[in-house]
Design brief:
Layout: H1 8-16, H2 30-49, H3 54-61, H4 65-93, H5 95-114, H6 119-136, H7 138-147, H8 150-181, H9 190-193, H10 195-209, H11 223-242, H12 250-276, H13 284-288, H14 290-320, H15 325-331, H16 333-353, H17 356-379, H18 385-411, H19 419-449, H20 453-474, H21 483-490
Helix pairs in contact: 1-21, 2-6, 2-7, 2-8, 2-10, 4-5, 4-6, 4-11, 4-19, 5-6, 5-7, 5-10, 7-8, 7-19, 8-15, 8-16, 8-18, 11-12, 11-19, 14-15, 14-18, 14-19, 14-20, 16-18, 17-18, 17-20, 19-20
């Protein structure tokens, strides 16, 4: 099979083939959509719910600081490394089948995390949980792409964006509630065990309400590309996560120096694979599509700043303003409510304003973050959580609009036959950037907060506000082209 470069001309030619032929996708019901969204919600929730529990895990399992960081980083790295493979396997084996396999694995590994007798077992279970999540989550967007059309697809993608954002924000709130409840003296364990009943329910329902779909031309797993991508992500995130806790030993610098080497080798291997006529893990011609390339460039700083903010805000409220885990979760509620509200409006607003919604959302996010900086700067250390609410609400609303438009911008250029690969690439960038944000800006915050937490918050959140301003300036100012849905439907 020869490789086909995915240019605009190619896509237009696809839409003209066999004019009388149109493949009707299986119907995805509202219940099926909810089950798929559950599969997106649980992995995202689990990335952040553990943050508020780390001190308690330390006291019960007597973990070292590097091992505690691996509880977070092990999950995130395994998740990011395996996502594209999960999308490729869904294309080949069937997305519903891989969704169920991923849900089963995620449920079992959540149970293992909840009953882990030692920190070593917990870290190992978290790594396996990340791999299971990577098998599960890419099937959600890929199924939406394959089984929905027009406004129904746009609404589903909007709900996906809302689900992800709410999961990230509510992770800390739910974690605080469960820790404070201390159910039957179980301490931190319910933050993992809560996944089990939802996972079982999702597994039972998926067979009945999620339609089957797969790529008409599934590609084999790109083993060299997968190995090099994994090496690039691991050698970047592990030193950034573990290096500060270990005072940057020589090995951390040596490993970090290999990350760009692996990244360059990955790009070279993928280009050669496509020239040979095989389908690489991340087709370079897919990334060269204008909507995909531009969207991914915007996604990296957005998710990097978002991941860092959630980490920094929780530590600031608990360690700086001296609230407990539940108070930290309640403090973020205005952002959650505003994010959810904005996500419900994003689909309709995108239909009207197109990619211009990106700039509007990022500008509102910047405005909200500046409001937070002003309150922290003026009122520290006697900061009322109520005083933080307006800035959080404006930032959350802006993030929801920007995120909803960002997902639509990236996925608009992905043909149906590459739905699994496209969604896998997008979520890999999302999870990798979130983890990188925690590892880089989170590390900067911890270092600065040892001297002055107010200054640490102002610096790190100021950097995120700067990202938001740059994103608003760099966002396209044109309406979305409606022809992409037609092309995808006719492919």
């Amino acid at each position: 099979m020869t490789a086909q470069t995915l240019t605009a001309d190619n896509l237009r030619s696809i839409s003209t083939r066999r004019p009388g032929h149109r493949r009707e996708p299986q119907r995805l019901t509202s219940l099926g959509t909810l089950v798929l969204l559950l599969g997106a919600f649980l992995p995202m929730l689990d990335f952040f719910i553990v943050n508020v529990a780390l001190p308690t895990i330390d006291s019960t399992l007597h973990a070292s600081t590097p091992m505690l960081e691996l509880v977070v980083a092990g999950y995130g790295v395994a998740f990011a490394v395996s996502l594209v493979v999960g999308g490729r396997l869904g294309d080949a084996m069937g997305r519903r089948r891989m969704f169920m396999i991923g849900m089963l694995g995620f449920t079992l590994t959540s149970l293992l995390c909840g009953i882990a007798p030692s920190i070593g077992v917990l870290v190992a279970a978290r790594i396996l949980q990340g791999v299971s999540a990577a098998m599960l989550q890419p099937q959600v967007l890929a199924t939406f792409q394959a089984t929905l059309e027009g406004q129904a697809r746009s609404r589903a993608i909007g709900m996906y964006a809302a689900t992800g954002g709410i999961a990230v924000v509510l992770g800390q709130l739910l974690g605080g509630v469960l820790l404070n409840a201390d159910l039957a003296g179980s301490s931190w364990r319910p933050i993992f065990l809560v996944n089990v009943p939802f996972g079982i329910a999702g597994l039972l329902l998926a067979r009945r309400v999620v339609p089957t779909s797969r790529s008409p031309h599934p590609a084999a797993v790109d083993i060299p590309g997968t190995a090099l991508l994994a090496a690039a992500i691991v050698t970047l995130l592990v030193p950034l996560t573990e290096g500060p806790a270990l005072h940057w030993p020589v090995w951390s610098w040596l490993v970090l120096a290999t990350a760009p080497v692996f990244a360059a080798a990955f790009v070279t291997v993928e280009r050669r694979a496509e020239r040979r006529g095989t389908t690489p893990l991340v087709p370079p011609s897919l990334v060269r599509l204008a909507t995909v390339r531009h969207g991914l460039v915007l996604a990296v700083p957005f998710f990097l700043g978002f991941g860092a903010f959630m980490f920094v805000f929780a530590l600031t409220v608990q360690d700086g303003l001296h609230h407990d885990a539940l108070g930290s979760g309640l403090a973020i509620t205005p952002m959650a409510v505003a994010f959810f509200t904005g996500s419900l409006l994003a689909a309709r607003l995108y239909e009207r304003f197109g990619t211009r919604l990106l700039a509007a959302g990022f500008a509102l996010q910047a405005l909200g973050l500046v409001g937070l900086l002003t309150v922290i700067g003026d009122q520290w250390p006697h900061v009322s959580l109520v005083a933080l609410a307006p800035g959080l609400a404006v930032a959350g609303f802006g993030q929801s609009l920007g995120l909803g438009a960002l997902f639509r911008t990236v996925l608009a250029g992905v043909p149906q036959r590459l739905a699994g690969i496209g969604s896998g690439v997008l979520v890999t960038v999302q999870q990798g950037s979130v983890a990188l944000g925690v590892a880089s800006l989170g590390t900067l915050f911890v270092s600065l907060s040892a001297h002055n937490m107010r200054t640490a918050f102002l610096v790190v959140v100021g950097i995120q506000a700067g990202f938001a301003v740059l994103l608003a300036l760099a966002s396209p100012r044109r309406a979305a082209a409606p022809s992409v849905d037609v092309v995808v439907e006719a492919a």
